[in-house]
Amino acid sequence: MHPLDNVIWTALSTHQAHFAEANELARRFPVEIGPLAGLKEPTEQAFNALADLLNPEESAALFLDKAQEPPSGLTVIATAPLLQMVQEKPIDSPETPFSPFELIELGVEDIPEMIELTQLTKPGPFGTRTRELGMYLGIRQSGKLVAMSGERLHVHGYTEVSAVCTHPDHTGHGYAAALMQAVMNSIRARGETPFLHTRAYNDRAISLYERLGFSRRALLHLSVVRKA
C-alpha cells in the first residue's frame, strides 16, 4: 500500500502514533489538535470502534475512498469531494529563492492569532494544539498575522502542507505561494515529498498548487461524522 493511501490511519499508526487516541480498528487525533481520524478499513466494525473513541456530540473527519453511510451510532454532518495532490518533483527555482516578505516561524505565543486567522479563512480545522504537528510559518503586516502555512500529517517519505491561508484584506500579494515554498523547501531538505489536500471544487487553490508543481494523485471523499 502506498504511504498516502489511508493517510490519516497511516500517520497515526507510524510517525504520529504518539498523538493517537486509538483502538484496534480506529485512531483519532486529540480534539485540541483537530477532528482528523482514520479507520483501519471502512467496515461497520471500524465505524463502531471510532464511535467508541468519541464523546457525545464530538465529530471526526475521515478521508474515504468513496462515500459511505456509517452505522446508526454515527451521523454524517458534512461531506465534500477532496483532492489529494503531490509535488513529486520540485519546480525549477534558485537554491535559495528570494522572498520579498519576512517569513517568521510561529510559536506558542502566536496560537490565538493562528486560530483567529483560520476561523476567518476556513483552510481546514485548526485547534489549540495543531501547531504541535510541525513547523508553521507566517507573515505579519503592521504587527498582525495576515498569512500562514505549515505541516500536518507525516508518513514515511511524505509530509503534508496544510493551513494555507491569507486574510481576505491581504490577498493578491503572493503570500501563500511564498509561505508554501518555504515549507516545501524544509520538507525537501529532510528528503521527504510534500503533499496536500484541498476541496475538489476550489479551483483557485488548485491552480496555485499546480503552479507550485503539485499534481493530482487521488480524488477522496471527506466525511465528517458525529456520535449520535
Strand content: 25-35%
What name does CATH use for the topology of the largest domain? Aminopeptidase
**CATH class label of the largest domain:** Alpha Beta
Q: So, CATH architecture of the largest domain?
A: 3-Layer(aba) Sandwich
- Give the tally of structural domains: 2
Low-confidence residue ranges: 94-98
Determine the mean pLDDT: 94
The main β sheet shows up as:
8 strands, mixed
Radius of gyration: 17 Å
What is the topological layout?
Elements: H1 7-13, E1 21-22, E2 26-28, E3 37-39, H2 44-53, E4 59-64, E5 74-86, E6 104-105, H3 111-121, E7 136-141, E8 144-155, E9 158-166, H4 175-189, E10 193-199, H5 203-211, E11 215-227
Q: What would you say this structure looks like, in words?
A:
The relative contact order is 0.21. The protein has helices at 7-13, 44-53, 111-121, 175-189, 203-211; strands spanning 21-22, 26-28, 37-39, 59-64, 74-86, 104-105, 136-141, 144-155, 158-166, 193-199, 215-227. It contains five helices and eleven strands, in the order αβββαβββαβββαβαβ. A hairpin with a 2-residue loop joins strand 7 (136-141) and strand 8 (144-155). It is of the alpha+beta class and 228 residues long. The two termini are 33 Å apart. It folds into two domains: 7-82 and 223-227, Gcn5-related N-acetyltransferase (GNAT) (Aminopeptidase, 3-Layer(aba) Sandwich), CATH 3.40.630.30; 85-218, Aminopeptidase (3-Layer(aba) Sandwich), CATH 3.40.630. It is globular.
